[in-house]
Amino acid sequence: MSRDVAILWLKPFIARPIALAGLCILLATVLAAVFAPWLSPFDPYAIDPVTRLTPPNTIHWFGTDQFGRDTLSRVIHSARMALLIGSGVVVFALATGVPVGVLSALFPRLGHVLMRMVDVLMAFPALLLALGLIVILGPSVANAILAIGVGYMTTTTRIVYGLTLRLRAETYVEASRSMGAGTIWLISKHILPNLVSPLLVQASFVFAFAQLGAASLDFLGLGAPPEIPSWGNMLAESRTFITRAPWLLFFPGMMIVATAFSLNLVGDALRDRLDPRFRQVFGEKG
Amino acid sequence: MSSDDILAVRDLKVSFTARRAGRKYRVQAVDGVSLSLAEGEVLGIVGESGCGKTTLGRAIVGLVQPDGGNIAFKDDDAIAAGGAALRAMRLNVRMVFQDPYASLNPRRTIGDSVAEAGDINGIFRDRTDRSAMIASTLTAVGLDPSFATRYPYELSGGQRQRAGIARAILPTPSVVVADEPVSALDVSVQAQVLNLMMDLREQLRLSMLFISHDLGVIGQISSRVAVMYMGRIVERGATRTVLDHPLHPYTRALIAAIPKPDPSKRILGAIEASEPPSLFKRPAGCAYAARCPLASDRCLVDIPQLRSAGADDRALACHNV
User: Fold this and answer.
1) In a domain, B266, yes or no
2) What is the DSSP string of B281-301?
3) Is B238 domain-assigned?
4) Which of B105, B109, B150 to mutate to test the interface with A (most CBs of A within 10 A)?
5) Which residue range is the domain that position B314 belongs to?
6) In a domain, B208, yes or no
7) In order along chain B (321 residues), what is the average pLDDT of each group of 10 residues?
8) What is the ipTM for the molecules in this complex?
């Protein structure tokens, strides 16, 4: 049973090589983050003035920065910050968006109030909202997660709200109500289980956009402290050396693009897997 | 309410508020319906789309709030009483839904769906008791007990409707409200499901409110029939009498619309293509007057009330018959 399910979920990736590539990049990033101390050829903090700004060579594959730190080691260690911010934002967006969306849909009066507040938040561009919050809260990793999370909490709430409104009108929910089911029963047995799949897709997109948001905040010096390796910090530090040492921008920039892109590809594949129109193709009875 | 009635609905009114072009309209979906259901009886409710028959059924199982009249279950006005009486009624009056594809949660196993009323109301002693009850209920509706662990997408339409019926009879209720339970099924499966419902009615001594637009199906399953038109009962009586000798012009038109094997043997009656008047703009008099071949001036101003029209609870709401 569980093996069949695994195959079912892998099928859209196997059917589309580009989605499989996305999954591989994503897995590579996760592995890099987990095994960073063992994978890095050098200490990412070790300063070596003698080898500063060396172009990529056989010893320093991605070259070194203005302090002689190994770029490859810093790129690998940055994956940790990327995953931390990404998962933090996803957890925050789901933990706030799901309850607000579900309760708004089930209790229309409460929903009118809450959804208008969400509308107000949605009126701000996500990055502007994040910048504003950071200015108020002060720059730190936790605040970066919060600031970016608030922006994506709104879209998550909207999605959950819309889906719950639809689920609430389903015949099986009516059947349950006609047998005396209360709100907690309806949420736990009928609504949440049917939200899992669409939220999985939403989570992958939020994760991807959180990468871009975090990189932007880091670049502006409003995210992780500058000494901590992150792709955004690396871009910010090296931009003055753009003509002398372009590799310093190229490698972290590539990583931001690759992770965001791969997450979008994975999200697309998950969405296709969940779209009933594609199910027939992958051999599941509708 | 006579002593052998298990369910009595008196002067039930249900309305909805609809918005059209910025204006609010009140739609009277059920407009003063009274009916009673004797123990073990099958009462058919027939009428075209939008006549309020589904709303009537939904009000009886508590899915919509009536704004007038009362629903009494075994001598108690359960809705007014609330609390334990209402809870008892929820378990005793159950519904079978029209669309077997929409009425089962795709994420829950058939067993979980069938046991839902029991789980909500905490009637199972333990897990073995629960699985035993699921298995025996599935067997009763003609499904193998192994279906308990399957998901709805693995079942055919007929099997799903059997599961939907199983959900309505665990624990065994007194009354089943069946809202078009076979109209979404293939004709061959329709007969099987109808036979199953007849068998269950006998074995479990169920009373049934059988809602359908199909007089053929009603004729097979119900002993009495009530014909609804625009929220009101226009004719009522023993099924055979009503089908063989319809009195109300609307009933005649409905019967005339049943496809016959021999098209030359048609009952004379209004065969019409017209539609009922808009629910937003209810006519002042008889709602059927605009389509009725017998309509007189009185029909346009005076709503005909349901009056007795012969033996066996025969009743009719028409000025001109």
Assistant:
1) yes
2) S--SS-TTGGG-TT--HHHHH
3) no
4) B105
5) 251-321
6) no
7) 77 87 83 90 90 91 88 74 74 92 92 94 92 95 94 91 95 92 89 93 93 89 92 92 90 81 58 68 83 85 86 86 77
8) 0.86
